[in-house]
Amino acid sequence: MRISNPPVASSLMATARSFGNYDLAAALADLIDNSIRAKAQKITISFEPEENDVVVRIRDDGTGMNRDELVKAMRPASANPEDPRDAADLGRFGWGLKSASLSQARVLTVVSWNETGHTAARWDIDNLEDWQMELTVGEQAKKNLSKRPNSISGTEVIWTHCDRLLDKDISGNIDEQLNDKISHAHKQLALIFHRYLSGEAKKNFCIQMQGIDIKPIDPFLSQHPATQTIDDEIIRLKGTEIISVKPFTIPHFSKLTIEEKELLGGDEGLVRNQGFYVYRNKRLIIHGTWFRLVPHGELSQLTRVRVDLPNTQDKDWKITLDKSDAQLPPILRTRLRDFIKGFSKRSVRANRRRGVDLTVGKNEPVWRRNAYNGRIRYQINKDHPLVWQMLSEAKNQEIAREALSLIESCLPSEMIADDQGKNKIEQVQSISDPEAFNALIDAYFLACVAQSEDHPTLREVIEFTKNTEPFSSQWKYTESYIRNTLKTKWKLK
Ligand SMILES: Nc1ncnc2c1ncn2[C@@H]1O[C@H](COP(=O)(O)OP(=O)(O)O)[C@@H](O)[C@H]1O
Ligand SMILES: [Mg+2]
User: Fold this and answer.
1) Which of 46, 60, 446, 481 suits 202 as a labelling partner, its CA being 20 to 30 A distant?
2) Which of 37, 59, 108, 153 to mutate to test the pocket of ligand 1 (most atoms within 8 A of CB)?
3) Is 79 in the pocket of ligand 1 (CB under 6 A)?
4) Same domain, 329 and 384
């Protein structure tokens, strides 16, 4: 005997909300994938705050859907992941639209229009009896839009009852919470779709969020004159399938402007974001990992390796539903490991070349004072050659950086202020012992040697040192030590 045993609608849809660990950016990215597949050129995303809710609208000017297509699109598991797909297809499981949306909202409405007219469909998590879906056409369907369609065809996905987007339990301003999420998502999308936004993957494509065009964030800084790269390496898999791999060494942090550093996630981000950048149809699906092929920190922090996958690889890479994660198929492990080994040597060289920059004579303090929004933070200058050298030689980069952050965050500022206020204790923080100071100059000199291509000359050492703390403030002493002792000790020319 065979009997029908369908899932309970409300339970299945409630489970679908947690498929794939979507955050706001990942959920939006999944809808953008759909829009790109529907040949959209312009996508606009808006967040409209309402009393105790926010309405999110994701509109595209793609091909749109007619009634039957929309009904099918709204069906959970609308496609079989095993079916072959068009090479440019960014979808896979036939769940994206539904689970991405429901991961953020309890009600999903999709309005789509083309030459056949307007159709709207709605899933409401709290009203799912027997898989009943609301469907309207024509004027009735149009009523869901807050702005008239400005393209002959297109689709608007609307999220309401956004319980996951607004965390009402967290005290604090809802607007502020939302703004934080929006700005985080903005940056993520700028990275995920950077090859689309730059025109590489698609001409004249744009995503606008809250009225602002999203500018691409290129994690390889490929247009920067100091970025190094080599030609793509093609790895052939079965049949005609190929994976292309291209390594980049981004310029040393000291060569980046504050804006460039900021774009790449600041000092922390620069270190954390080394690794493979895996793209599926030029859309970033995973980044900042070496897939345990290289221990974190062993390779230069400046290395990023671009891996381009066709979408036929999904099964081998175990692409997850939200496409945010992938595992390396065994056949590729060895190939990539060898590849990385060869490349790491180059990357170390670029890391060293930084020494050249020292001659520019820019001021290198030990502490940086950052004032932001009326708040002041003292941070250890990680570009100080001695600190930089320590970090680059540290066996475990993460621990070394965390230790520095710890020192920064536990700066005994209250005690200092208190002691200075009382004015009774003389603070002796600077090095007053000449032996210790000489040792510091020696260590600094060795750090400079490690960071230079060639052995520095006497003139260069003086240049390197003159503007660096604490030598600059003890310059007379430092200079005489360099000229009289260091020069003979290291046979400087
Ligand atoms: N913005 C859109 N424009 C046109 N068609 C769409 C759009 N979004 C979704 N669709 C249709 O809905 C189907 C289901 O989408 P989705 O649930 O994301 O699954 P998948 O992307 O894996 O196919 C898509 O295959 C597509 O045909
Ligand atoms: Mg999809």
Assistant:
1) 46
2) 37
3) yes
4) no
In a domain, 430, yes or no: yes
Residue 418 has pLDDT above 60, yes or no: yes
Q: Whole-model pTM above 0.90?
A: no
109 and 165 co-located in one domain: yes
The dihedrals phi and psi of 293, each to the nearest 5 degrees, come to -85, -30
Pairing of strands 275-280, 303-309: parallel
> How many domains does the structure of the chain reveal?
3
Which structural domain, as residue segments, surrounds residue 478? 367-489
Rounded Cα distance between 275 and 298, Å, is 11
Helix (H, G, I), strand (E, B) or coil at 209: strand
Band of residue 365 on the pLDDT scale cut at 50, 70, 90:
confident
What is the CATH classification number for the domain harbouring 326? Answer: 3.30.230
Atom of ligand 1 nearest to the CA of 81: 22
CATH of the domain at 117: 3.30.565.10
**For residues 115 and 98, is the Cβ–Cβ distance under 8 A?**
no
The reply to whether 156 and 13 lie within a common domain is yes
> Does the beta carbon of 155 sit less than 6 angstroms from any atom of ligand 1?
yes
Any atom of ligand 1 within 6 Å of the Cβ of 99: no
241/280 same-domain check: yes
Q: Are residue 35 and residue 172 in the same domain, yes or no?
A: yes
User: Residue 47: which region, alpha, beta or left (left: phi > 0; alpha: psi -120 to 50)?
Assistant: beta
Contact, 13 vs 176, CB < 8 A? Answer: no
- Note if the bond before 76 is cis, omega within 30 degrees: no
Question: Whose CA is closest to 463, among 365, 354, 363?
Answer: 363
Closest ligand 1 atom to Cα of 79? 23
At 137, the pLDDT band (50, 70, 90 cuts) reads very high
